[in-house]
Amino acid sequence: MFGFLKKKSSANTAKDRLTIAIMSDRESTHYPFMDEMKAEIIEVVKKYIGVKSVDIKKEVVDDVEALSIDVQLDK
Amino acid sequence: MGIVIAVISGKGGVGKTTTTANIGLGIAMNDKKAVVVDFDIGQRNLDMILGLENRVVYDIVQVMDGEAKMKQALIKSKVNENLMFLAASQTKDKTVLDSEKIKKLVEELKEEFDFVILDAPAGIESGYEHTIEFADAAIIVVNPEVSSIRDADRAIGILDSKSQKVKDGEDVQKHLIINRVNPAMVESGEMLKCDDILDILNVPLLGKVPEDRAIIEASNQGKPVITDNNSEAGKAYKRIADRLCGKDVKIPEFVAKKGGILGLFKGMFK
Q1: Chain-chain contact of B200 with A19 (C-beta, under 8 angstroms)
Q2: Residues 6+ apart with CB under 8 A from A28
Q3: Chain B interface, best mutation among A4, A10, A18, by max B CB count within 10 A
Q4: I need a surface site. Which of A71, B77, B83, B139 has the fewest CB within 10 A?
Q5: CA B139, CA B18: separation in Å to the nearest integer?
Q6: Which chain A residues contact residue B129 at CB under 8 A?
Q7: Helix and strand tally (H, E) in chain A?
Q8: Average model confidence (pLDDT) for chain B?
Q9: pLDDT tens across B184-232, in order?
């Protein structure tokens, strides 16, 4: 009763805030192995072509997680 | 060969040590051999919860450094002889932990016990990574509260990148325990529902434990709450331990107890 008078429950607010905070945490999380992986990728690419830098980003779209790897070549 | 389970959390104070003690005892009550190991070096606490603080002579660091034999350091539970306990060092700090030594220790325990349960430091602390490194499975303990859940997600991220099993291309099993659920608050929309937490963290639920005064009372006495048959939290831990031992036990929904003046008042208006 009086449900229509109530403002949004605080649990729902918590859920919304958490969902957003965790999404951004996960995106920005550079896992501890990232630097190692970067260095190895540079080594591999270097064998064939000059490389300036490697950038790895984790992307989450719905349920699919992907790593996007950006290799900048050294001219 | 036993299974190694690390009990982890993001932030401290969510009930990891209580969970470790109760699950260990619950497994022992299932006639399985279990050992609970306090990995929170420098912050020994599991001994108090088990009521064994007066029996600690040697600790985990001394075993790892070869200063004591495993047999000398293992302490038998007062309540159930299937449960053994290995204490954390109180004087040293977490930096003494070393991967090779931990691996050796864990493997030795695996030979002897069906379940090796490691009470980890909180996920943000050093020493956490070492505890999870050689675990086959992890139990993540959270409270229905924003900071606990957010930090748990980060701890899970570290688990996924640092675990030896994951590095070997295998999966590290994950189980979630939602601790300190207050059913009345959930009903009134003031506390996150378990389903919401599962949606956010995306880890399968192992069990829910209600907030219960009996937990403090149990820790006062050094007797894990699972030995208290009248306590709701104790019963919840019993169910969790049974599930870990392969029994098919349902996870019940908690209902708020109607009682007291407030409960009566609410009841009148329903």
Answers
A1: yes
A2: none
A3: A18
A4: A71
A5: 13
A6: 32
A7: 2, 2
A8: 92
A9: 999 999 999 999 999 999 999 999 999 999 999 999 999 999 999 999 9
Higher-scoring residue by pLDDT: A24, B200? B200
pLDDT at A32: 62
Close Cβ partners of B29 (under 8 Å, ≥ 6 residues apart) = B80, B82, B226, B238, B241
- CA distance from start to end of chain B: 55
How do the domains of chain B map onto residue ranges? 3-268
Which of B13-22, B97-106, B139-148, B209-218 bottoms out in mean pLDDT, i.e. has the lowest?
B97-106
Please list every residue in chain B whose beta carbon sits closer than 8 Å to the beta carbon of residue A11. 186, 189-193, 196
Residue B262: what are its φ and ψ, rounded to 5°? -60, -45
Looking at every residue in chain A, the average pLDDT score rounds to 80
User: What is the rounded average pLDDT of the residues B103-124?
Assistant: 94
Residue whose tokens read 């064998």:
A47
For B150, name the nearest residue in chain A, comparing CA atoms only. A22
Regarding the domain delimited by B3-268, which CATH topology (the fold level of the hierarchy) does it fall under? Rossmann fold (3.40.50)
Contact (CB<8Å) B189/A21: no
The total number of residues shown for chain A amounts to: 75
* Closest approach of A14 to chain B, Cα-based (Å): 7
ipTM summary value: 0.79
Q: Does residue B34 sit at the A interface (CB-CB below 8 Å)? A: no
Which residue out of B146, B178, B265 would a mutagenesis test of the A interface target, given it has the greatest number of A Cβ atoms within 10 Å? B146
Distance CA B160, CA B8 (A): 13
Q: Chain B within 8 Å of A52 (Cβ-Cβ)?
A: no
Residue in B126, B120, B62 with CA at minimum distance from that of residue B90: B62
A58-72, B96-110, B113-127: which has the minimum mean pLDDT? Answer: A58-72
